[in-house]
Automatic annotation (TrEMBL):
It comes from the Eukaryota. This is Zinc metalloproteinase. The lineage of its organism: Eukaryota, Fungi, Fungi incertae sedis, Mucoromycota, Glomeromycotina. Pfam families: Jacalin, Metallopep. The keyword Protease applies. It comes from Rhizophagus irregularis (strain DAOM 181602 / DAOM 197198 / MUCL 43194). The keyword Ribosomal protein does not apply. Keywords: Hydrolase, Metalloprotease, Protease. One of its GO terms (cellular component) is cytoplasm.
């Protein structure tokens, strides 16, 4: 608590019952417009219900009132950019004969993260849309099913996501960093008392060229038990197309939370599922997108004043006209949880978060109400932060957000351009797995059967570019005898590199070659097609112990590497890929005693392009395109040397890795 020199803030008599803010420090710097506050007020040894009024000094935002339950309270506090003086005023009448309110004055400094790319809120509207959502009759009569109401609901949901995420980042020790929302100066709807003009979340109305019939086509409905028709565009592609047609700001790198307005729960006998709905998140090209249908939006709050009542509304869902999504939306407060929470799950995918063992990226969104309220229907006990259960971001997701460009704090420099798209590379060194990435490694996720079962956290390391792990220890701890371990190396620049099978890679990376004896294979770049035969290229091979050296390479390429042909000193050759008339043809000649020591590679599904460096210091030109992520194929350290290449090829060069051995 602090006193304030402003005469409008009279000092009050000190009392042990005065409101105390627990989760935010007085004077703390935050980065979101709506701040989640948790605190205690009133006697802590008795059962009672009361209320706290939040008043804002200087700004024009109206007062709001929040529950106090057995001394616990949670509030959503509006902030203006800059220093905010907030009053928390406790109603003491339920527990004291002295009915004078108790007041705490609190300061918070709101610094918007304007340097970061925003999360854009968008509503997809069919070309011939009726511009309404599924809603109970009483909400239809009040107009709460119309587009303007839906805009307010999505805006409020966006600020709830932001408040929740900032609190989670803080609890994980990363400060109150959070994504910002794309905002504009317009008529605000975050309060129902005096809307007025404010800087508030912008809602992009994406009026699609797709018709209502196309969007509501049951063949592309995600919940259709007969499956999606692969010959038709799915809803995610339709949303993507519509964003591209809309233009700026979706014509460059962007992040989008997309609500499908025209979703409809079809109760007819042959249907019984939601048409025009898909819960998906991810992205391609420049757009990262999470989408969700509007079928539960009727239960969402439009304003801060409705947040508590919506998350506590025990009205039974009328399944004759409204969806009980996943069988978990049987009451309106549960519809609110799934509608806002499962949508946030898809936004999590948009921000690169995968499924997790618990939390929002599992099905923890069923507990989302516990973040914002201290009282849950049918629960006699207050909901404290320790009882919020699934309403959290799993730690490995939070680590991802720590280095995401949408979460960068003002004093943190932007990512270096020369480190963009650089992915991790890895090698086996006898009993160890070596991982390197010049962009820095923040996280290693460990999967069994495509589920994360553990992670290694390097978020506190300033410049963790190299990691050595003992293979047997990883297998023993996470895999056991029969479980295949998949690993994902997440870099600070957001690239991800997968090791699909640790046990197989550990075993198959060690091979025996004539003359050379025991040698190793690095990870391969590109996507493996197991129907293709693996090739091995040795820079120096032996025929009857006579050394035969690699003399030249001919590379054919366009945006990918079409083929590489290798020629040795005995006039033998081997071609990888298709030798046709397509693309550009270039030759690289090796001098006496010259060999490859490093290959810079761009790869995705195929080998996009590469450049070689030799032991004589010579570099080739860049062959091919620049798509995919950037990697370096070279011997892991000074104790090893590169002796050849391996990989697969068909119409293109599909995969490429190196063969290396310990220097004698």
């Amino acid at each position: 608590m602090i006193s304030n020199s402003d005469s409008s803030y009279s000092k009050v008599e000190s009392s042990p019952y005065t409101p105390v803010v627990i989760n935010v420090e007085n004077g703390e710097v935050v980065h979101q417009r709506i701040l989640l506050i948790y605190g205690r007020a009133g006697p802590q040894d008795m059962n009672f219900e009361s209320k706290i009024t939040v008043e804002h000094h200087v700004n024009n935002f109206p007062s709001t009132t929040w529950q106090v339950f057995n001394s616990h309270f949670k509030c959503l506090v509006h902030l203006d950019a800059g220093l905010n003086n907030i009053k928390f005023i406790l109603d003491t009448s339920p527990f004291s004969s002295d009915s004078r309110p108790l007041t705490t004055i609190f300061q918070v400094n709101y610094v918007p993260l304007l340097q970061n790319p925003p999360l854009n809120l968008a509503i997809l509207v069919a070309k011939d849309s009726k511009e309404i959502i599924d809603a109970p009759e009483e909400k239809e009569n009040s107009g709460e099913n119309k587009l303007e109401s839906v805009k307010a609901k999505l805006r409020c949901a966006g600020y709830l996501w932001q408040a929740f995420t900032a609190e989670q980042m803080s609890r994980n020790g990363f400060g109150r960093r959070v994504f910002r929302l794309d905002e504009e100066w317009t008529e605000d709807t975050i309060s129902n008392q005096n809307p007025g003009l404010r800087q508030t979340a912008k809602i992009h109305i994406i009026r699609s060229s797709y018709t209502l019939k196309q969007i509501l086509d049951p063949d592309i409905a995600q919940q259709n038990p007969n499956g999606v028709d692969d010959k038709k565009k799915d809803l995610y592609s339709i949303f993507m197309d519509s964003l591209k047609e809309y233009g700026a700001p979706f014509d460059k790198q962007c992040y989008v939370a997309g609500l499908i307005l025209d979703s409809h729960y079809d109760t007819s006998p042959n249907m019984g599922f939601i048409r025009g709905h898909a819960a998906l998140g991810g992205g391609w090209d420049n757009i990262r997108l999470g989408i969700f249908g509007s079928h539960l939006t009727h239960a969402w709050p439009r304003y801060l004043e409705e947040v508590v009542s919506c998350f506590q509304d025990n009205t039974i869902t009328d399944e004759n006209r409204l969806s009980n999504d996943a069988g978990e939306s049987g009451t309106w407060w549960r519809c609110c949880n799934i509608g806002i929470g499962a949508f946030l799950h898809e936004v999590g995918h948009c921000l690169t978060a995968p499924h997790s063992p618990s939390g929002i990226m599992s099905r923890g969104f069923n507990n989302l109400n516990r973040t914002f309220t201290v009282k849950e229907p049918n629960n006699p006990f207050p909901t404290t932060p320790s009882e919020e259960e699934g309403a959290h971001w799993y730690r490995s997701n939070v680590i991802r957000f720590r280095y995401h460009p949408c979460f960068r704090l003002p004093f943190e420099p932007p990512a270096k351009i020369d480190l963009k798209n650089i992915g991790a590379d890895f090698w086996i060194l006898n009993k160890f797995l070596l991982i390197k990435c010049s962009a820095g490694i923040s996280l290693i996720e460990i999967y069994v059967r495509n589920n994360i079962i553990g992670y290694l956290d390097y978020s506190d390391e300033y410049n963790q570019t190299e990691i050595r792990l003992k293979v047997d220890e990883i297998i023993k701890k996470y895999g056991g005898k029969y479980n295949i371990i998949k690993m994902n190396f997440v870099a600070k620049n957001q690239t991800e590199t997968f090791l699909q099978n640790l046990q197989k890679f550990s075993e198959e990376s060690k091979i025996i070659l004539p003359i050379y004896g025991k040698v190793f294979k690095s990870n391969y770049l590109g996507k493996l097609d197991e129907s293709l035969t693996e090739f091995k290229i040795l820079f120096k091979k032996f025929i009857d112990t006579k050394p035969i050296t690699l003399k030249r390479m001919i590379i054919k390429y366009d945006v990918f590497i079409n083929s590489i042909t290798f020629y040795w000193s005995d006039n033998t050759n081997l071609r990888i890929g298709i030798d046709d008339d397509e693309g550009i043809k270039k030759e690289f000649l090796f001098e006496e005693g010259e060999k490859i020591v490093k290959i810079k590679v761009n790869s995705g599904w195929y080998i996009d392009g590469f450049e070689i460096k030799t032991n004589l210091g010579r570099r080739s030109k860049w062959f091919g395109g620049h798509g995919g992520s950037k990697h370096t194929l070279e011997a892991p350290d000074n104790e090893y040397e590169m002796i050849g290449l391996y990989g697969t090829g068909n119409y293109f060069v599909n995969t490429l890795g190196i063969i290396y051995k310990k220097i004698s």
